[in-house]
Design goal:
By secondary structure, this protein is mainly alpha-helical. Helices cover 67% and strands 0% of the residues. α1 runs antiparallel to α5, α5 packs antiparallel against α7 and α7 runs antiparallel to α8. It is globular and about 50 Å long. The protein starts with 15 loop residues before the first helix and ends in a 5-residue tail after the last helix. The N terminus is likely disordered.
């Protein structure tokens, strides 16, 4: 059966990849916003678990303007842009519910979560290598931080993927 000839469901929900991508866009849009990043830096303790988690949610930070005119806005926001794009691609490429032995919501949840964790790692790696002054060591460290972000925030994308059809 071709991907374009999917049966319509009576529920009216979108695809798991679509709802997961929307959740990723919201996570990056809200968690990476300048207002949230400023608030979390001023009002949380980085040495506590809650403060660490709230600061981690701000990892794909984006800005409306660049402090460095040589970089431009796109280079500054490369991590946020790549996070959403790679999450969408991986959510589409990891259709666990279609190939799993036991189809259902559990496989959709873990597929969405895994896609976001992988997207975080790849985003950290690529954004550092493609950005200015990117060394291999810095790229590996950024990939580690991105994968950690995806692990701790990916459950939101996994939960959003539950509502869609495979």
């Amino acid at each position: 059966m071709a991907l374009t000839n999917r049966p319509r469901t009576a529920s009216g929900y979108g695809t798991a990849a679509g709802t997961g991508t929307l959740a990723a866009l919201l996570l990056v849009g809200v968690g990476g916003s300048p207002a949230y990043v400023g608030w979390v830096q001023d009002h949380t303790d980085p040495n506590g678990a809650g403060g660490w988690f709230l600061r981690l949610l701000a990892w794909p930070a984006w800005r409306l303007h660049s402090d460095d005119p040589a970089q431009g806005v796109f280079a500054t926001d490369l991590r946020a842009v790549l996070m959403v794009i790679l999450a969408a691609v991986l959510l589409y490429l990891l259709p666990a519910s279609q190939v799993a032995r036991v189809q259902g919501s559990v496989s959709q949840f873990f597929s969405g979560w895994a896609a976001y964790a992988l997207a975080g790692g790849f985003t950290g790696l690529l954004a550092t290598l493609l950005g200015p002054d990117g060394s291999l060591l810095t790229a590996f460290q950024a990939a580690s931080t991105g994968a950690t972000y995806g692990l701790f925030a990916g459950w939101v994308v996994g939960t959003a993927s539950l509502g869609g059809r495979a």
